[in-house]
Amino acid sequence: MKSIILILSLLAFTGVIYAETAEEKGLAIAIEADKRDQGWGDQATVMKMTLRNSQGAESTREIRGKALEVKGDGDKSLTIFDTPRDVKGTAFLSFTHTLKADEQWLYLPALKRVKRISSSNKSGPFMGSEFAYEDISSQEVEKYKYKFIRDDKYEGRDVFVLELYPQYKKSGYTKQISYIDKEMYQPLKIEFYDRKKSLLKTLTQHDYKQYLNKYWRANRLEMLNHQTGKSTTLLWKSYKFKNGFNKRDFDKNSLKRAR
Amino acid sequence: MKKNIGLLFFVLPSMLSANEWSGNIAIEQKLFSNDPLLSSQYSQYSSIAIQPEWVHEWDGGNQIFSFVPFARWDQRDDERTHVDIRELSWLKVFAESELRVGVRKVFWGVSESQHLVDIINQTDLVESTDGEEKLGQPMINYALINDWGTVDLFVLPYFRERTFAGNDGRLRTIPRVDASNPEYESSDKETHTDYAARWSHSLGVWDIGLSYFDGTSRDPDFKLGLDANGDDVLLPVYYQMQQTGIDFQATLDAWLWKVEAINRRINNITYNATTAGFEYTFYGVLDSASDIGLVMEYLYDDRNDSATTPFEDDLMMGIRWTNNDENDTSLLFGIIADRDDSSRLYSIEASRRIGQNWNLNLEARVFKKLTDVTSPLYSLREDDFLQLELSYYF
What is the Cα–Cα distance from A22 to A24, expressed in whole angstroms? Predict the structure, then answer.
């Protein structure tokens, strides 16, 4: 009885002097961004990744991706490599989860072998690029704690500046600073801070286009590693929605025949 | 007429819009550090192999035709010079099932040191002594896909004999195996129809497989005989067998725990064999992008010293270094140690890509203290080798 009174009085109290904290505002922006990107269903993409070392020498990878939206959990995705030619046909299946460890399988075409692999390598490079696995994994609200920093302008556009603190295990980051466009609710720039809290990488997202009159997708990503001078460009050649994918397109059988 | 041919060339590519060629050509140089045991053998072998791949996809990706021929020419070993059809198959995808008809390769299992459960394809032993290379197997495979796992049913209407190094080759038995005169327990010989089934499923951190095989053993026994010249040879004998296999892996953060076990009934005996172990990976060691994985597996066969495998009570330890660079540089160092004697098998495998289309592969094996004359590895005691392979992928 006593506790009920306490709760009631607390409710009344907070009601009176309620003011949104920076954390609450950050979370509210993340929830709004997530809400606006719900319902896309599935997508098929064709990408080209260009890796550049500090001397400017380039190598490229051509990748195709399929993704299936999973409500209430992380998405399912299948990534197929077309080049370099020696890894052609290699395919990567991932069931992402919000806080629980992701499930990942790799198909090695030369051996016809499907290998279940550890998903602990979140901070490891994806295909030798400057993108870590955690950068390309599906983004869910629960994966971070948020803090609103300020309203600002970035390249002439109004943005929210947010700090994100990864809550999942094995992240290579202590903090991300995200510049979120106020119209699209999509990041234009993200700065990544490593485990020693120093600036590691900067990601800029370019050429946003709207699909199905609702969903904004960047068509070019530039990731620069400040500590090594290496950079990676990720260029989308196509986005295709409403492919009619179902869970059968994202199982170990589909992995073996991915091409 | 000329016009029609022109039209054909014009029409063909557009009709077969989703068809493509790819593949690789590889030159290989194998160097043996010790003098051969036999005068017919050499210290250096050059070789070239080609494996093109043609794939045609239609019906929105629900039907796929694949053709993968393979050919190797070896400078000295006539038996290693060989051709094979690795794949010639048609796949049809249905909503809850998949049908595959033709020549294919199938892999089952989880372990690294040996593949006990993997039973569908015959080993192409002249390609590699580690048993990783396989011959194409004719089959009808129907897969039923359920929420409780995938059930694969196999009918295997034709048997492929194992390949063995020839008289001039190294990494072979002494006396050599005469593969041209195999014996079979079944009077149907190589046309005996084999059957297999497998259930496999993923549940959270667990990946599990249960399999059964009834047919001609891919692993031959040997008996002494004479070839056409009156020289001693080993003749392969292929018995009928029934094998039940289980494979499972638990993926717990950076730990992979693995078990493979089989129960095999062959030639009036029944035996069990197992491979069990783990792989643990340190990701991003010393703040670099590199990963270092530790692999340890125990290999056991309850026939002990009468086993036809050299790995009856052995420990395999390995270190895998993955650089995660743009060239996919990696290195695997392994030791298989017999627990009964001091024999050791060391191996190194390293590879990296060069540019966009080339790949350099290095492999070395060293056999130490192979003093047990009854071991199947005894005749390899002077066959330490270094192999370099340069491949072009197109």
Answer: 6
